[in-house]
């Protein structure tokens, strides 16, 4: 069973336990913590509160380990979200000429949600690593079009000598070498900016917010039930 097919049951990652919800009663029946429906028979305990057998089964299904076959599909979904996040991040950086933590969080949310959807709504460590890697590349590769835009808009002024005015033939570069260089630049870009002091450190912190969101959204939620229990005669 899958909790996505039952709108009355929230997904395991959406549950909250910071605020206690009293066990209201309808006649002699307590309400289920998840679906808020009366429990007339056997029940389970979750964080000290009652859960009906149906909701327990739905929640168990949502905590299953994703199959290995779902990982390629999760990678495809996540790559699409990462591409969209790359475009959004680069566009905002070019238009506003600044990095915004909220955009990084948005990219992490987009990638994490897409990876989880590709994994049939389930989470796990492989999904977390995948989501973090895609989010990181989505943000850091956006530095490349931003740098190109800035260099075109404000080309650096350099003094040339007579010998330097003679163009030198560039060494031929294969497509593979060019892609490898871009990939290395994307990985190292945030750390290369550390030479700028506070602004470089701030860039790494901004990326961290996005990675944290992607990691959280694709994590496996482990909820532990006790039971089943039968209602006492007084109930």
Describe this structure in words.
Helix content is 51%, strand content 8%. The chain has 235 residues and is mainly alpha-helical. Strands 1-2-3 form a 3-stranded antiparallel beta sheet, with no helix packed on it. Strands 5-4-6 form a 3-stranded antiparallel beta sheet. Strand 2 and strand 3 (38-39) form a beta hairpin. The chain starts with 24 loop residues before the first strand and ends in a 6-residue tail after the last strand.
In short:
The chain is built from 7 helices and 6 strands. It is mostly helical. The strands form 2 sheets. It has a 3-stranded antiparallel β-sheet, with no helix packed on it. Strands 5-4-6 form a 3-stranded antiparallel β-sheet.
Topology:
Blueprint: E1 25-26, E2 29-31, E3 38-39, E4 43-46, E5 49-51, H1 53-62, H2 70-96, H3 101-118, H4 125-140, H5 143-153, H6 175-192, H7 198-217, E6 225-229
Helix pairs in contact: 2-3, 2-4, 2-5, 3-4, 3-7, 4-7
């Amino acid at each position: 069973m899958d909790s996505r097919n039952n709108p009355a049951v929230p997904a395991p990652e959406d549950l909250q336990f910071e605020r206690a919800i009293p066990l209201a009663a309808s006649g002699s029946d307590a309400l289920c913590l998840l679906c808020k429906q009366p429990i007339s028979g056997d029940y389970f305990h979750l964080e000290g509160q009652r859960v009906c057998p149906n909701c327990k089964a739905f929640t168990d299904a949502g905590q299953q380990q994703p199959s290995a076959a779902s990982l390629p599909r999760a990678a495809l979904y996540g790559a699409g979200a990462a591409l969209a996040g790359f475009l959004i991040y680069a566009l905002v950086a070019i238009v506003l000429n600044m990095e915004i933590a909220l955009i990084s969080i948005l990219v992490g949310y987009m990638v994490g949600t897409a990876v989880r959807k590709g994994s049939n709504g389930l989470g796990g460590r492989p999904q977390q690593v995948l989501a973090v890697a895609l989010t990181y590349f989505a943000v850091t590769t956006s530095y490349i079009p931003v740098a190109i835009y800035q260099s075109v808009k404000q080309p650096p002024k350099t003094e040339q000598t007579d010998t330097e005015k003679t163009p030198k033939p560039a060494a031929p570069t294969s497509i593979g070498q060019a892609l490898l260089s871009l990939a290395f630049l994307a990985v190292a870009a945030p750390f290369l900016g550390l030479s700028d002091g506070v602004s470089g450190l701030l860039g790494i912190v901004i990326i961290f917010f996005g990675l944290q969101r992607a990691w959280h959204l694709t994590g496996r939620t482990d909820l532990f039930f006790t039971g089943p229990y039968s209602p006492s005669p007084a109930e």
